[in-house]
Amino acid sequence: MPSPTVAPFQSIAFAAPAPGPRLIVTGAVHGNETCGTQAIRHAIADIESGQVVLQSGSVTFVPVTNPLAYAKGERAGDRNLNRNLSPTDQPADFEDRVANWLCPLLAAHDVLLDLHSTRARNPAFAMLGPLDNAGPLQPFRLAARERALAVRLGVHRFVDGWLETYATGVARRVARIGAAGNRAQALNTDPRYGVGTTEYMRSVGGCAITLECGQHEDPRAPEVGHRAIVNTLVHLGIAQGEAPAPVQDAEYLSLWDVTDRLDAGDAFSREWSSFDRLRKGDRIGTRADGTPVVAPEDGLIVFPDHKALPGNEWFYLARARPSADLLPAR
């Protein structure tokens, strides 16, 4: 089978005459998630036609962040770009080469809006970073700015706790399988493998939001992404327009635990979708040896993956939090 034709890396930048915030918007970090690409191209057309007028700062668009995955129409080229994202002097795969181009570009901006979609038919939601902290895993000091933007994107559900929960799962994985024996295993047992576009952006002094715009083929998903781009431009003062109001009926969730699939025979008890509600004791699935996997408390299941490879994340658990806690005190 011939190799797909891979387009060069491309970014399109617009700058207003006056100084201001520097926004970057990325699409197709995963090649089968094309709603962001469509949304970005719509926003570019808006600017070029004068429908959106820039007044300060700048915006850079990356319609196709991973051109190999995009050409293949698959989630990854050689591996998941949204893991272990950092520059490297010795690139080992295509995604390493993307990182060497993308990471300096991210570092040259203040805010990242990263547009994605999901396999399951879930309503759109935003993934947030941590609250301000000086901890070793993900120190951060811009939570108020990040979350003030998030509640103006046009979505109503917000989820945090990704990297902390991923690191908890890695610690269990290391205890279970011991030292890494190959590169894939080494990545899978490194907490830094949880670092993707938004985590990298925060590590270089910016703030960032992952917006899951809906299901991959949902015709409404590109418009969710487009609305979020325009709202972000206006909220940051980059574009003219009436400032978007924060949503009033927000749902705020925190990831707190992750369970790996241990064997190809591990199976879910039903076809779960993200944000399906669980009651304590509900059977989530069954291990290959017949051991039941049950919900340890009331909550929600997030990112269930029936195609997960053994040794990788099978599903996450989330707890509801008061929506009043969504915006940190200034």
Brief summary of the model shown:
This protein has 330 residues and is α/β, with parallel strands linked by helices. The protein has 8 helices and 14 strands. The N and C termini lie far apart (56 Å).
Structural account:
The chain is of the alpha/beta class and 330 residues long. The chain folds into 2 domains: 12-235, Aminopeptidase (3-Layer(aba) Sandwich); 256-321, OB fold (Dihydrolipoamide Acetyltransferase, E2P) (Beta Barrel). It is 26% helix and 25% strand. The chain is built from 8 helices and 14 strands. The protein has helices at residues 35-49, 67-72, 94-107, 143-150, 162-177, 183-188, 197-203, 221-235; strands at 12-15, 18-26, 56-62, 111-118, 125-127, 157-160, 207-215, 251-261, 267-268, 276-278, 283-286, 292-294, 299-302, 312-321. The strands form 2 sheets. An 11-stranded mixed sheet has the order 1-3-2-4-7-5-6-8-14-13-10, with helices on both faces. Strands 9-11-12 form a 3-stranded antiparallel sheet, with no helix packed on it. Helix 4 links the parallel strand 5 (125-127) and strand 6 (157-160). Helix 1 crosses helix 8. It is globular.
Question: What would the keywords be for this entry?
Answer:
single chain; 26% helix; 14 strands; OB fold (Dihydrolipoamide Acetyltransferase, E2P); alpha/beta; Aminopeptidase; 330 residues
